[in-house]
Amino acid sequence: MGSGEDLQPAAVRDLLDQVVARTVAGMGAYAGALFLLEPGGEVLVLDASFGMPTGFVSLLRRIRVAAVPEAPLAEAILQRHVVWVGSGEEFARRYPHLALTYPFVDAVAAAPLVAGSRVWGAMLVLFSQKSPVLDAHARGRFTTAARCIAVLLQDAAEAGHRLQPGLTARLLPPTPAHPSAPAHPQAAADFIAAVPEGACRLDVRGRITFADHTAADLLGESIPHLVGARVWEAVPWLAHPASQLRYRAALASQLPTSSTVKQPRTGRELVLQLYPDSTGVSLRISAPVGATHSPGELALGTGAVPGPASLDAYYHMMQLSGGLAAAVSVDEVVELVAGHLLVALEAHAFALLVAEAGRVRVVGHHGFSPELVDLVDHAPLASDLPLPGLTSGAPPWGLTQGVPSFFADRDELRAAYPESASIDDRLGAWAWLPLMASQQFVGVCVVGYRQARSFTLQERTTLTAISALISQALDRARQYDAKHELAESLQASLLPRTLPTMHGLEAAARYLPASHGMEVGGDFYDLIRLSDTEAAAVIGDVQGHSASAASLMGEVRTAVHAYAVVGATSGEVLARTNHLFNDLDPGLLTSCLYVHIDPVHHRAQLATAGHCPPLLRHSDLHTDILEVPPGPLLGVDPKAEYPTTDIPLPPGTLLVLYTDGLIETPGTDHETALTDLATVLSKATGPLNDIADTLLAHAQPSGDRADDTALLLLKVF
C-alpha cells in the first residue's frame, strides 16, 4: 500500500470496505461480511457486513473455529479453501444446527483470508435464488479478493497497525446492482398518487427512506414521523417480532413475502407486501384482494411469535437453548451464556455461582467488577458475603428451594439482604435465579441490569425458564468434566510416568486423549531398557474407548515388557503377546508396533501387528515412510507369525512412532495425511520436544481430537 501512514486502521478499513462491496456486487450476490480471526486463532469476529439483515449481524458476531466446523466460515479456515453451499437443502444437511437459526439462507460462499502461512479471517457472501451458481469466474474473483484482503491485513499488522474488530460490527449498504435511472419526479409522483396502494421504501437496516401519503394514512402516522425511523419503531402496532422476522426473511432470501395485519385504530385489514433487492425492501400496503401470496413468494404465517421483545433477543434465545442442550463441559456452558444470555435479556452482567465443597465458586462471569468476583470466588458458604441464597442469611424458602428472586432496584435488594451493600453499585436491578438439578440446589445464576426495572410476568417467566436450561446443562457439564478428569487420570496411570535415559538414544513422548467423549482410550506407548546398550520401543492401540479397553491396554503393555526383557526378537515378542491375548479372549483387537533398538551398533529390528507405518528421518532431514511387512492384529489368529525388518540407524536418525489419531483429519485420507506429516517432519527443527509439539500442532491445529493420540520420538546420536 505504501507508507505506514497508508496502513493506518482507518485507511485499511476503507480499502477493505471497497474490496468486499465490489466483490459482492461483482459476484451477483446480495450481501457479504468480513470476519477477523482473534489472535488465539480460535474465534472469528464479525468486523463488517454489507447488505445483510441486522438480525444476521448480531448472530454472526462470534464464530468458534472447531475441528468439526458448524459454519461455512470455520470450514473454510480449517480446510484453507473456498466453501460453496449451493442451496438451502445442502445448507441444512451440512450445518443442521446453524440452519435451525438461519432458515432463509440459500446459497453461501466462504473464503479464508490467507497470506503465506497465516490466516487472518474469512469472507462470507450470500446469494439469492436469482443467482445460486458459483461459476469459475465468480470463484476466481472471490479467491482473488480474499487473497488481496489477507495481504492488506498482513501488511498493516507488520507495520504495527493490526486491524482489530470493533465493539460492534459495522453495517454498510452494498453497492447497488443497477445504477439509478434518470429521474422523472413529476411522473413518478403522479403515478403514486393515482394508485390506491401505499408505498414505502426501507433500507437494509429497516429504516424508512420514503413513504407516500397513502402509506402514511393507512399506517395511521405522518410522513415526517415515518421517514428516518425503523418501521417497527415508527408504527407501534408493527413492533411485534413477527414484523421484523418477515422483513429479515425477505432480505435474507431475496424473495417477496406478504402478510395480512389489522390496523388497531380503524380495525381495517391491510396486506403488507415486501419486495426485496440488494439495497433494501419496497413495501406495498393495500386492502386484501384474493390470495396474498404469489408463486415464488416466501410465505410466512401471521400468527404471533412468542418470546422476548426483539427478534435479535428471540434468535439469541434459540441459540442459547439449542447450544445448552448440546454442551458437554462447564466451559461450553459459560461461553454460551456469555455469548447469548446478555443479548437475549438486554442485560449488562451475569455470573454463574455454584456451591462446591462448602464454598462458593464463580465458574463464569461478565460485567461484574473484578473486586466483587475476587471477594466471592472460593469464599465459605456460611459467610456474610452479599450472596442471597448462598449465604447463612438466606431464608429457608429462598433460592435453595428453587424460588427466584427479582430486585427492581438497589433499595429492594438491600431491604431483603442488608449484607448486599457491597454488590456492584454500577448496576440498577438484579435477578437471582436458582440452579436446581434433580431437585437439588447447585448454585445461582445472577443477572444484572444497568437501570432499575420492573420485571414483568413475561420477563420473570422467561428468566425462570432460562435458569432451568442452564441448570440442566451445568449439571451435565459438571458430571462430564468430573468423569473426563477421572478417565484422563486412569489413562495417565497406565502409561509410563517417565522415559528411561539411554546412552546414544534420546526420546520424547506425547499422549493426548480425544476431545469428545469421557471414556478412557486404549492407546499406549513404552520405552523399555533391555541392557546398558539396548532398548525396546512399543506403541499400540486397543480397539474402542472404555474401561475394558484401558484394562486390556495395561495387560498388553505388561506382556510386551515381560517378553522383551527375556531377550525375545521383535517378531517373537508380538507372537507371544498375541498368543496370550487370544487366551484372554477380550473380544477386542489391538494394533501394535515393536522396535528393538541397538544405538551402539546403529541398528533396529521392527515388527508390526497391523499398526501405522513408522516415519524415519535421516540426518539430512529427508523422511521415509517405512514399509514394514505387516502381521495380523493381536487377537485375530493365535498362531500368527510376525515377520521382522532390520534397518540402519546412523547417528542423527529420528524414528517416529504414533497411533492413528495423529493422521485422522476430516476430509483427508490416511495416505495423504501421512505424506503431509512426513513433509512436516522433514522441515521440523529444534529440540525433540519441540518437534513432537510441531507434529501435534500440524495434525490437530484447532486442538480438537476425534481420537486418542500417542506419539513416541526416538533419536540416535
Strand content: 15-25%
Low-confidence sequence ranges:
290-309, 392-398
Overall form:
globular
Mean pLDDT: 81
How many DSSP H or I helices? 20
Keywords:
717 residues; alpha+beta; 7-stranded mixed β-sheet; 6-stranded mixed β-sheet; globular
What does this structure look like?
With 717 residues, the protein is α+β, with helices and mostly antiparallel strands. The protein has 20 helices and 28 strands. The strands form five sheets. Strands 1, 2, 3, 4, 5, 6 and 7 form a seven-stranded mixed sheet that branches. Helix 12 (311-326) packs antiparallel against helix 13 (330-345).
Quick summary:
With 717 residues, this protein is α+β, with helices and mostly antiparallel strands.
